[in-house]
Write a structure and sequence with these properties.
Structural class: alpha+beta
Number of strands: 16
Organism: Streptomyces coerulescens
Largest sheet: 10 strands, mixed
Protein name: ATP-NAD kinase
Strand content: 25-35%
Order of helices and strands: EHHHEEHEHEEEEEEHEEEEEE
Oligomer: single chain
InterPro entries: NAD/diacylglycerol_kinase_sf
Length: 299
């Protein structure tokens, strides 16, 4: 007998909860915010809306289904199953945070605070949850297959992201490496920069878009389902030993950007999750390109 579906509710700690945990009580948190010109009631109200949304979604789960919750900070230690239905209650960025840990499970994005989020990935309201959950099991619902980006190191370390992958030094130190495109006749360039950013069409609504605009928007931005990535070198430094001719481009489905580390330590992390990074040392090579996996985001 097959198992009933399991709903995995993904959420994150609210600002109010973090404040109370740091300062001990509501009153002390209120005093701290007041000393900085803020009112705790606005923070507390957003907390109440987030918890209400989580409660409303939980009540919409069929009684015969299994369910569990996972907080953003615990995603890298949580084991998702093939039968899971993932329900993200929060901000757009929370969908990106969970995407790298999935393998084709349907994802429902629930906006916990409409009006504050763009709603690119959290497309639905808590009241929609019951119908959406039913459609995932009946096969009536449709989903977008969103392109993801992956980085694979020569020691088999692998990193996947929905928006973008950043390759660079920890903190604000200069990253040193050799950069080239696979199958480009062996042309490589030694560079010193603030790092390399490789993003998807979903990421084109965020960090990648800001760099793209800064560079004049010469290349067309990909759509979230396009098998095409954009990449940019941030603040490349020209010197007798380093160049600036390879600073932007696009990667089609089969293309790969190759980077060989010439620093003591570089890191690669995706979608702002710095705590779940791939560490690279001198001489290691990493290749970045379109990922074979997709995020199934329910419409």
């Amino acid at each position: 007998m097959s198992l009933a579906p399991r709903v995995v509710l993904v959420h994150r700690t609210t600002e109010y909860e973090e404040l109370v945990a740091r300062h001990g009580t509501h009153g002390q948190a209120a005093f701290f915010l007041a000393s900085r010109g803020r009112d705790i009631e606005e923070v507390a109200e957003r907390h109440r809306r987030a918890r209400q949304a989580l409660t409303e979604v939980t009540s919409a789960i069929p009684l015969t289904w299994r369910q569990t919750r996972v907080e953003r900070a615990d995603l890298d230690r949580f084991l998702f199953g093939p039968e899971d239905v993932v329900v993200v209650v929060g901000q757009d960025g929370l969908v990106a945070n969970v995407a790298k840990y999935l393998a084709g499970q349907p994802v429902l994005g629930i906006d916990a605070d409409p009006g504050r989020n763009p709603g690119v990935l959290v497309r639905h309201r808590p009241a929609d949850a019951a119908g959406l959950l039913a459609s995932t099991q009946s096969g009536r619902g449709d989903a977008d297959e969103l392109t993801m980006v992956e980085a694979v190191a020569d020691d088999t370390q692998r990193l996947v992201a929905l928006n973008e992958i950043y390759l660079g030094a920890v903190g604000h130190q200069t990253a040193r490496y050799r950069l080239g495109l696979e199958d480009d006749g062996g042309v490589v360039e030694a560079q010193a920069s603030s790092g390399v950013l490789i993003g998807t069409g979903t990421g084109a609504t965020g960090w990648i878009r800001s760099v793209w605009q800064e560079r004049g928007g010469r290349q067309p931005l990909p759509s979230p389902t396009d098998e095409r990535l954009l990449w940019f070198v941030r603040e490349a430094w020209p010197s007798p030993a380093t160049g600036t001719s390879l600073v932007a481009g696009e990667l089609a489905a089969a293309a790969r950007l190759r980077l060989t580390v010439e620093s003591e330590r570089l890191v690669a992390f995706g979608d702002g999750m710095e705590t779940d990074a791939v560490e690279l040392t001198w001489g290691q090579t990493v290749q970045v390109g379109v990922c074979r996996d997709r995020l199934r985001l329910v419409n």
